[in-house]
């Protein structure tokens, strides 16, 4: 392994990364598997909202996070449901205040928004959205956190909801309940659609709040701008290469919002594949020993916990395996870099940057594994069978074939193939990935005819 200099400071926060190869293929396990939630319009916006406040411990020595408000509150529950909810609520307090530092009352505090993922035993996942702020009042006081738990992944939309929550909090806690009640009664909009929420604020009257989902719903939880503010294009390619081969990756940053956005952005680069291993966008201090796991992970750790990470491990937090530049086929690496450069010329808004970046990496998968559907053999009796050897042998480029031979050993590709084998031939041809494959093949055929 080679020691290298860490990533340079970004505009909004300092971020660095660490990745190293898992010990053996046999050690891979399905730990904290993040399953993509269904994004169906008509669902509730959220399950519940909680307020996590810092309260003095009984001995008065320090503050500890406690839930002081919950909406809606479920009073009638079976014993096992109550136990599960208590575990969830405990986890929420840890993620809302993950630093494990000695808090003190403050007179100034810059509010921040971040997200985390709660993964259940069965692999299902829920998203936690958090806004930490300094409540209204005089004198020094500890910050508090508002946390929304939802099965829906849409960071931008929930950030706007928190803007409304914070505005009401500065006037009175009593104004938050009617707003959240209206929100809970509203149906989650379809991609590209808007829902209107009417809410009354004293001295301002009734306000109409417009909440709009992005048209590209598969990118609505992502902000690639933060990732590229923190890392250069070449460094993002190195991280992508490590993630594609399911290595261990840790990001360090000062701000919680930076960590959560960078982690989700890296996971989104893998589309149409899904990260299948441990994913913790913000690691609480109490869970810091997860860095010792021998299996793949994507972790976000605050820089104030950096010493704990190095104490837990024999490796430096600025460590590369050394082969990151040679994992991806050189020609395709160059194509990605050219495509990414277009965002600096054309893309100004977050949505435009997301489109340029996502298409650059999606095109990479189109070029490398876009011929997958031709190598699934179907029978009348049962599910299809993917002919793995014929699939990668069909690739003409030696460097691309070398990469694909490694990539098809990953769990993310295994899951993709398993789902493919279970589908009927008539049900396979759909989705944005297939559309991009069709467009690429059409252009390739037209180019062949001209020659």
Automatic annotation (TrEMBL):
The keyword Metal-binding does not apply. Residues 1-23 are annotated as: Disordered. It holds the Pfam family DENN. InterPro entries: cDENN_dom (IPR001194), dDENN_dom (IPR005112), DENN_C (IPR043153), DENN_domain_containing_2 (IPR051942), Tripartite_DENN (IPR037516), uDENN_dom (IPR005113). One of its GO terms (cellular component) is nucleoplasm. GO terms for molecular function: guanyl-nucleotide exchange factor activity. The keyword RNA-binding does not apply. Keywords: Guanine-nucleotide releasing factor. Residues 47-427 form the UDENN domain. Gene3D superfamilies: 3.30.450.200, 3.40.50.11500. PANTHER family: DENN DOMAIN-CONTAINING PROTEIN 2 (PTHR15288), DENN DOMAIN-CONTAINING PROTEIN 2D (PTHR15288:SF2). This is UDENN domain-containing protein. It comes from Xiphophorus couchianus.
């Amino acid at each position: 392994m080679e020691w290298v200099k860490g990533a340079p400071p970004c505009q909004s926060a300092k971020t660095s990364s660490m990745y190293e190869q898992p010990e053996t293929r046999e050690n891979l396990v399905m730990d904290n598997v993040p399953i993509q939630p269904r994004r169906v319009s008509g669902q509730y916006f959220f399950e519940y909202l909680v307020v996590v406040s810092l309260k003095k411990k009984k001995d008065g020595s320090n503050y500890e996070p406690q839930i002081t408000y919950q909406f809606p509150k479920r009073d009638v529950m079976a014993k096992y449901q109550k136990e599960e909810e208590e575990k969830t609520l405990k986890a929420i307090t840890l993620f809302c205040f993950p630093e494990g530092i000695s808090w003190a009352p403050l007179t100034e505090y810059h509010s921040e928004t971040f997200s985390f993922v709660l993964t259940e035993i069965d692999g299902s996942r829920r998203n936690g959205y958090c806004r930490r702020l300094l409540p209204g009042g005089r004198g020094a006081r500890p910050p508090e956190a508002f946390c929304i738990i939802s099965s829906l992944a849409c960071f931008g939309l929930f950030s706007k909801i928190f803007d409304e929550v914070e505005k009401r909090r500065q006037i009175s806690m009593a104004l938050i309940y009617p707003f959240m009640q209206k929100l809970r009664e509203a149906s989650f909009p379809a991609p590209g659609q808007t829902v209107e929420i009417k809410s009354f604020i004293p001295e301002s009257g009734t306000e109409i709040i417009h909440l709009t989902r992005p048209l590209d719903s598969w990118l609505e939880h992502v902000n690639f701008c933060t990732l590229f503010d923190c890392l250069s294009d070449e460094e993002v390619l190195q991280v992508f290469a490590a993630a594609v081969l399911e290595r261990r990756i840790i990001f360090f940053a000062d701000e919680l919002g930076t960590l959560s956005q960078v982690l989700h952005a890296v996971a989104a680069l893998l589309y149409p594949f899904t990260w299948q291993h441990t994913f913790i966008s913000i690691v609480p201090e109490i869970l810091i020993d997860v860095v010792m796991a021998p299996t793949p992970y994507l972790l976000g750790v605050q820089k104030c916990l950096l010493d704990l990470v190095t104490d837990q491990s024999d490796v430096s937090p600025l460590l590369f395996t050394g082969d990151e530049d040679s994992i991806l086929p050189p020609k395709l690496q160059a194509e990605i870099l050219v495509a990414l450069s277009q965002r600096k010329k054309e893309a100004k808004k977050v949505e435009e940057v997301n489109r340029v970046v996502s298409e650059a990496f999606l095109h990479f998968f189109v070029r490398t594994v876009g011929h997958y559907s031709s190598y699934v053999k179907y029978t009348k009796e049962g599910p299809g069978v993917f002919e793995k050897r014929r699939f990668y042998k069909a690739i003409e480029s030696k460097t691309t074939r070398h990469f694909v031979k490694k990539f098809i050993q990953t769990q993310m590709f295994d899951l993709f193939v398993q789902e493919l084998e279970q589908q009927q031939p008539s049900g396979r041809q759909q989705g944005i990935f297939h559309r991009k494959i069709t467009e690429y093949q059409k252009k390739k055929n037209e180019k062949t005819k001209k020659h």
